[in-house]
């Protein structure tokens, strides 16, 4: 896939973010790790190398977000649109082996009337297109997974996720992670995570620490 198509995807994401979507409940304060939360923030982290991330909440239902490492070899850019029961995400990420185009969603089981006890559970699902580099095959497929939060007290929460995908040309991937977040103040938070991912192109094992400041 050529760079011009990547540019079109980003422009399409930005265009969608400027259109109206279903209004969200403005009165509910969501958990800081909630994947359906719309926010404006800046942050930095370390997972063996320095990373930077940020998001811009355009209004109560739309958000643009991005992430990049210090040398620019790995990056992510996309947008999110909030609905009553979940959120729709469209984003592009890339590294030296491949670019991946994703369209997917998180839904809140509690908002759907499912009792998940002390856990906040968000199933995820979507479709992907993998643009292989350096002679690697392209692939079209889908993914399934879940993200979960277990608040411990007003500051500490346990966080975990897992998922996998399959696609054409025998492509497959899996990813999982677990860790904890700490809310320092209403605007400052940190997170420590261990993660594992594996696909046709590479395997990653990481321990990461990140800091975020919400504007």
Provide a descriptive summary of the structure in words.
The protein is mainly β. The protein is built from 1 helix and 12 strands, in the order αββββββββββββ. The protein has a 12-stranded antiparallel barrel with strand order 1-2-3-4-5-6-7-8-9-10-11-12. It comes from Shewanella youngdeokensis. Keywords: Signal. This is Outer membrane protein beta-barrel domain-containing protein.
Write a short abstract of this structure.
This is Outer membrane protein beta-barrel domain-containing protein. The protein is mainly beta and 215 residues long.
**N-to-C SSE string, H for helix and E for strand:** HEEEEEEEEEEEE
Based on CA atoms alone, the radius of gyration comes out at 17 Å
User: What count of helical segments does DSSP give?
Assistant: 1
Shape: globular
Strand content: over 45%
Strand order of the largest sheet: 1-2-3-4-5-6-7-8-9-10-11-12
β-strand number: 12
Q: Report how far the terminal alpha carbons are from each other.
A: 36 Å
What's the overall average pLDDT, rounded?
89
Structural class: mainly beta
Task: Tell me roughly what share of residues is in helical segments.
Answer: under 10%
Report the uncertain regions.
15-27
Largest sheet: 12 strands, antiparallel, barrel
Sequence-ordered SSE layout with sheet pairings:
Blueprint lengths: L2 H14 L24 E6 L3 E8 L4 E8 L5 E8 L3 E9 L3 E10 L12 E13 L6 E13 L4 E12 L4 E12 L4 E12 L3 E12 L1
Antiparallel strand pairs: 1-2, 1-12, 2-3, 3-4, 4-5, 5-6, 6-7, 7-8, 8-9, 9-10, 10-11, 11-12
């Amino acid at each position: 896939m050529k760079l011009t198509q990547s540019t079109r995807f980003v422009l399409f994401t930005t265009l969608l973010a400027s259109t109206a979507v279903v209004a969200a409940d403005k009165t509910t304060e969501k958990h800081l790790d909630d994947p359906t939360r719309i926010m404006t923030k800046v942050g930095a982290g370390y997972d063996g190398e320095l990373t930077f991330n940020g998001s811009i909440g355009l209004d109560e239902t739309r958000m643009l977000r991005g992430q990049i490492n210090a040398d620019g070899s790995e990056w992510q850019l996309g947008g999110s649109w909030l609905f009553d029961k979940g959120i729709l995400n469209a984003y592009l990420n890339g590294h030296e082996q491949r670019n991946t185009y994703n369209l997917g969603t998180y839904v809140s089981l509690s908002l759907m009337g499912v009792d998940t006890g002390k856990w906040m559970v968000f199933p995820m699902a979507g479709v992907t297109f993998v643009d292989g580099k350096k002679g690697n095959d392209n692939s079209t497929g889908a993914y399934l997974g879940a993200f979960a939060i277990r608040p411990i007290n007003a500051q500490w929460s346990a966080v975990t996720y897992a998922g996998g995908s399959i696609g054409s040309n025998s492509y497959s991937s899996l990813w999982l992670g677990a860790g904890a977040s700490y809310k320092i103040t209403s605007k400052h938070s940190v997170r420590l995570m261990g993660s594992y991912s594996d696909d046709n192109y590479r395997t990653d094992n990481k321990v990461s620490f990140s800091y975020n400041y919400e504007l």
